[in-house]
Amino acid sequence: DAGVTQSPTHLIKTRGQQVTLRCSPKSGHDTVSWYQQALGQGPQFIFQYYEEEERQRGNFPDRFSGHQFPNYSSELNVNALLLGDSALYLCASSLINGGTYEQYFGPGTRLTVT
Amino acid sequence: AQSVTQLGSHVSVSEGALVLLRCNYSSSVPPYLFWYVQYPNQGLQLLLKYTTGATLVKGINGFEAEFKKSETSFHLTKPSAHMSDAAEYFCAVSNPGAGNMLTFGGGTRLMVKP
């Protein structure tokens, strides 16, 4: 049973560019959440997708957008990259009505903006 | 709004000594509480969680935590530290019914001396 997978592992982009990160949830999970973890800090919630719609959103600008596909996988898009967007981006999956309230995290994508 | 405070960004213990990592939270409703561990260049792994019921919860790798409502605390302990426990530890809170969105503390780096 595969856990949460993310691609790519590492990514280097230039300021102003756009980036797309990908996430496949744990088998059986229907909800995907994205978190940004800056160096030396705790993860911060970006948004959550369920039934292909954004269900909740944290305090992030519109440059951050996402998508969920019918197979529950998800993408995180960031436009007009800033140096401050450099971080580890974590995807987490869960079951909306699972009752265990647990989120399973992937290994993350390390984004460096130069 | 929820928040999590982890006292001590760095904690150093000797191998075999007691591990105590502190976590205090604020929440307008009875929260669900979690401890996650992060090893270098990896994602987050759930150590333990409190949702309802018994306030002393046991997790993996010999860790346990006690939910104290009166102190709004959820400190993590382990009786005897191992070298393999060296990692970053994050306390997190979620609001039941809020889609399992996690609010994390800033993290505590545990160092274990031989």
Main beta sheet strand tally, sense and closure of chain B = 6 strands, mixed
The biggest sheet of chain A amounts to: 7 strands, mixed
Low-confidence stretches of chain B: none
Q: How many angstroms separate the termini of chain A? A: 37 Å
Give the H and E element order of chain A.
Answer: EEEEEEEEEEE
Shape estimate of chain B: globular
How many helices of chain A?
Answer: 0
Q: What attributes characterize this protein structure?
A:
heterodimer, A: 114 residues, mainly beta, seven-stranded mixed beta sheet, four-stranded antiparallel beta sheet, 50% strand, globular, B: mainly beta, six-stranded mixed beta sheet, 0% helix
Task: Note down, in words, how this protein is organized.
The complex is a heterodimer of chains A (114) and B (114). Chain A is 0% helix and 50% strand. Chain A contains no helices and eleven strands. Chain A has strands at residues 5-7, 10-13, 19-24, 31-37, 44-50, 53-57, 64-68, 74-78, 87-94, 104-105, 109-113. In chain A, the strands form two sheets. In chain A, strands 2, 4, 5, 6, 9, 10 and 11 form a seven-stranded mixed sheet that branches. Chain A has a four-stranded antiparallel sheet with strand order 1-3-8-7, with no helix packed on it. The model of chain A has no long low-confidence stretch (mean pLDDT 93). With 114 residues, chain B is mainly beta. Chain B has strands spanning 3-5, 10-14, 19-21, 24-26, 32-38, 44-50, 56-58, 64-68, 73-78, 87-94, 102-104, 108-113. In chain B, a hairpin with a 5-residue loop joins strand 7 (56-58) and strand 8 (64-68). The interface between A and B is medium-sized, with 27 and 25 residues.
